[in-house]
Amino acid sequence: MAFVLRRLCRLLLSLAVVVTASFGMMHLIPGDPVRAALGPTASPELIEARRATLGLDLPLHEQFWNYLSGLFRGELGVSIATGERVSDIVGERLPATLELAFAAVPLTLLLAVPLGMWLAARTENGRRRGTELVFTTVSGFVLALPEFLVAIGLVVVFSVTLGVLPPAGRGDPSTYVLPVAALVLGPAALITRLIRLETLRVLGEEYVRVARAKRLAPARLYLRHVLPNTLTATLTIAGLLLAGLIAGSVIVENVFAWPGVGSRVVQAIVSKDYPVAQGIVLLYGAVVLVVNIGVDVLLGLADPRSQIRRH
Fold it and tell me: What is the pLDDT of residues 100-130, one digit of tens each?
């Protein structure tokens, strides 16, 4: 309980920093964000009216207090360009982003964990150097590619050349294939590498050698003795992966014209609609913090030997 309370206190402190930073976005940007969003042809009366609507004509401390009060009520501000509530924009767009993230995370783990363990078993004790070389070369190549190049390459191959999958949009199940694949390929290559190394480490432990001496069936050996002892690494990777996919979906959503918060934050930045960008950045920061703290707690509960419980 003390460990959980420490983590919750750290979460609250980190959230306070993220909230303060997101509030400062509006005031650290050079120039007048309202004029930048409404354009040079906007009349002074319209600009002043919009500043009053947003509360930007108030003293800074009052603006910060109103911002905090709005957050506690679930309000993230108002769009400069359209006058919509940012919370409504996020509520409309967030499900599409979460669909991609929650489809990509389990798929990545289902691919990477068995593949990493299989490769570890195949290449244990320096066996099958060719298999190891092919795997490290291919995974290294995939990891070196930026996400937008992976996404564009998938569109070129499967949409333009083969014509078997739609290139963009959100609709029937076929429209999910390419965006999810673009999110999965890089993380799957990384996690497969890490799981392979972790499995090789576990296979070198004394209890595994004892289990082998007892001539346990391979399926029982790997499922009962090896897999549970890679749990710590798997939990850590899964948590970081989920946080990274939610933030990294910005690029993929824009390539595939996916109607999520990632594509919306880019539109907000281009149009200088800073309250929308501010609210979405705050959302991303809060999600990453909550996921990281949740992973820490799960690691502490799953592995009492973990050093993480002492910090």
Answer: 888 888 888 888 888 888 888 888 777 778 8
Burial 187-198 (b: 16+ CB within 10 A, else e): bbbbbbbbbbeb
Whether the CB-CB separation of 112 and 191 falls below 8 Å is answered with yes
**Residue 275 burial (C-beta neighbours within 10 Å; 0-12, 13-18, 19+):** buried
How far is residue 93's CA from residue 91's CA, in Å, rounded to a whole number? 6
Cα 309 to Cα 300: distance, rounded to the nearest angstrom? 5
CB atoms within 10 A of CB 162: 9
| Predicted confidence (pLDDT) at residue 235 exceeds the cutoff of 80 | no
d(CA 87, CA 74): 7
For 78, phi then psi, to 5°, come to -130, 140
Query: Any alpha helices (H) in 29-128, and if so which ranges?
Result: 33-38, 44-54, 60-72, 86-123
Distance CA 24, CA 156 (A): 41
CB-CB contact of 258 with 100 (8 Å): yes
- Calpha distance 120→229 (Å, rounded): 14
How big is the chain, counted in residues? 311
Residue 34: pLDDT above 60? yes
Tokens matching residue 209: 């050698």
Per DSSP, the residues of 279-295 read: HHHHHHHHHHHHHHHHH
309: pLDDT strictly greater than 70: no
- pTM for this structure? 0.77
Q: What is the mean pLDDT of residues 16-42?
A: 77
Please tell me the number of Cα atoms within 13 Å of 25 on its side-chain side. 19
Token pair, residue 60, equals 């800074």
The answer to whether 19 touches 71, Cβ cutoff 8 Å, is yes
